[in-house]
Design brief:
With 507 residues, the protein is of the alpha+beta class. Helices cover 59% and strands 9% of the residues. The chain contains 24 helices and six strands.
Amino acid sequence: MSNEQDAAAQAVLKLLETRGEFPALAATVTKVNILAEGDEGSAQELSKVILDDYTLTGKVLRVVNSPLFPHLQEIGTVSRAIVVLGWNEVQRLALALKLFDAFPVGSNPGMVQARLEQAFLGAILARGLGQTFRSSTEQAFIGGLFHTFGELLVSAYLPDKEAEGRALAEKHRLPEQSAVRISLGVTYSELGAVVAKKLRFPDSVIGAMHRDPRPVITGRPRPPELIAGLAHTANTMAGILLTPLKPGEADQRHKVADVLKNFESRYGARRIKVEPLVEAALHDLAVHAAVMDLPIAAKQMTLYAQQNLGMVEVAPANTTPPEVNTTASAEGVERIFSNGIQETMKSLLKEQTLSEVLLVVLETMHRGLKEERVRRVVFALRDPKEPVLRYRSGLGAELDEAARWFNINLGTSPDIFNLALSQAKDLEVEHVGALSSPQALPGVFRRKIPTDSYLLLLPIVVASKPIGMFYVEGEGQRALPEASLTALKTLRDQVVMAIARSSRVAA
């Protein structure tokens, strides 16, 4: 890309950063991709990223408890989903759901929906093609999903520029990519690659955004090259399949077959049969669309694809998604706490580490108190070398900063932390601003906690020794519901059991 093209792409990126849902997309996707830059991020890190996005959390749990992932038991927490499904599968799911959240069809209904439909069918086809090579089907899916990222960005956030490009293409009979370059200064794929780099996508996904990635046969493809080929081929097929036939026009099966033959010759694939590949993809499409509640017309897409292939309409059983189990998607507080308590108990019975138990407990506390406008939930643990409780882990707002200042000196101070710890007493403060004594809060807490807040302190005492605490902070003046308090205390007691067990093992 030339300096002029890069400057144009950066200018468009700055414009995008002020539009619609793009900043929210950028924040979540960037965090997920940073975690993926190593071999694998930890379950705890990925859980925190997803849990910071409340809408995404609910959708992930809905999908993992759907017919897409048949399990013997219900999964009630994101951390458990990562353990059961694997890091890569949950990453793929989170990126797909976030993409649809970030591109509302209302901004440019016709084009945005068409782009999303092609992208998602392309992703499913790419995963199906990837199975031929026994490659990473999750990465093939992500590459296919983001192959037309540039087109989606322009359609959703810069519809005026898209219209200008189309007018130029029609007036001067130019290819769409050429017309868009005149309008924006960059092509769709160049823009998509620049934004994807900003979002920290891996090189393999960025490379998958380029058109015709393997024009010359040069031996067996490397993994990034294969992902690019899968994405390009699958999206080309999806574009053909989803273009409605004109009156009197013959089916387009030969075009789809030619695309596959070209792919086979360049990438060394075995002969792939068109109908089974597309039928499987359409079935997956119908199930995904229903379970993930996607803004795409799955039935209409299926009809167009069948017409373009000259296929006899498949039986309803092949395209109608099975009944969706929405039980786990219900975000009722009682269910959230119940699931969390059960999963914590399973973790204890399986003798998982304290960190693994804490992750489930913190997630349950944070999600269960969402309606109470919780700001953050923190677990602090006694320093083994000095009498201080220090930040160990947490969920919620400004945790990186809190990790630096959240320290509680243990001693004779009359603050509420030492009171709760010395008496092994749970302490609820309904309104921080109403505390009668300035010494009720340590100095750093007086500076960091808004006066219009509520607090809950749940000390952790093992063998009469105070060793830790759960700290809950939320917005506004309120008393927590009795049922929620009971559940929070139960979760704390489970952590006490985990710590007591670890102490016995260490001894």
